[in-house]
Amino acid sequence: MPFRCGGELLGLYVRICPLIHIWMHVRFTPPWIRKDLNAALKKGLSGAVQELLLALMMTPDRFDSHRLRQSMEGVGTDEEALMEVLCTRSPAQLRDITIAYREMYNRYLENDLISETSKEFTKLVLAILKKEERNASGKIDFELIDQDVKELSEAVTGKKANPEPWTQVLTSRSSDHLKRVLSRLEDLKCEPVDKTIQSHFSGDLRLGLRILAQTIQNKPLFLAQRLHSCMKKNAVVRGIMVGQSEEDLLWVRVEFLKLTNLSLYSTIQKDFKGELQLALLALCRSED
Ligand SMILES: [Ca+2]
C-alpha cells in the first residue's frame, strides 16, 4: 500500500482533519505550514485519501474553483457538478470563486462557462454566476410574489415554453421569496415544480432548471439525494463532504437519514474502507 510509510502521519491527519479545516478557513494558517502540510500529504499519501486531504487544505473559494475547473476540463462537461457548485453558493461566495478561479488557473470563469455550455443553458449558468438578491430586505413582498408566479406560469402555458422569465426570476430574488413563489406555483399547477420543468423544458436547460429549483426549495435535500445516487463516485462524495462541511452538512445528514432510512455515517461505514472511510467519518463527525 503506497501510504503505509506515512501510516502514523495519516492517523494524525485524520484526527486533526476538522481542526485543519476550521484553521484553514479562518485564514490564520501561515503559508509555510500550509506548504509543509501539502508537501507531506503529497509525499506520504496517494489516491483518494490524498485527494480528500488536499481538498481540505484549500480555502472554500479555491476548492469550489477547483471543482468547477474539474467539471469543465477535458472532453465534455459535467453539468451536474457545475450546477451543484453554482446553485449552492451565495452571490458573495460566487464573486470570491470567480476571483479565485482567475488566480488559480489564469483563466476567466465566465469565458470557460461560455465555451463549455450552449444556448439557453449558457444564459442560465451566467445568470446564476451573477445572481443578485434584489429583495433581501426580509419583508415579504406579496405583490412581487403574485407577479413572479404569474410570469413563471405564463411562460409554460403556450405551445413552446419561454425559458427567459424562469432564468430571470430564479436568479434575481432572495431565496425566501423564491421558496414562496415556487410553493405558490405548485398550488396553482397542482404538481411539483420539478414535474412542471420536466414537462416543458429539455436538454441541459431542463437539468439546469431542475437543479436550480431543487436547491431553492431544499438545498440539503438536493445534496442528500446527490450523495445517495453518487455514493460510488469519489469526486462527488468528496465535493459535498468537504464543500458543505462548514455550512450545511448537518442538515444534509438530517435529510439523508429521512431519505434513505440509514444515516450518512453508517452509509460511509458500509460503502468505504480503510483510511478513506476514517477521513470521511471524521468529516461527517457523528452518527445520527
Ligand atoms: Ca470540457
From TrEMBL:
Gene3D superfamilies the UniProt entry points to: Annexin (1.10.220.10)
Domains: entry comment: A pair of annexin repeats may form one binding site for calcium and phospholipid.
Regions crossing the membrane: none
SUPFAM superfamilies noted in UniProt: Annexin
Alphabetized InterPro entries for the sequence: Annexin, Annexin_repeat, Annexin_repeat_CS, Annexin_sf
One GO cellular component term noted in the UniProt record for this chain: cytoplasm
Coiled-coil residue spans: none
Keyword field: Annexin, Calcium, Calcium/phospholipid-binding, Repeat
Superkingdom to which the source organism belongs: Eukaryota
Protein name listed in UniProt: Annexin
Single Gene Ontology MF annotation: calcium ion binding
Pfam families in alphabetical order: Annexin
Similarity remark: Belongs to the annexin family.
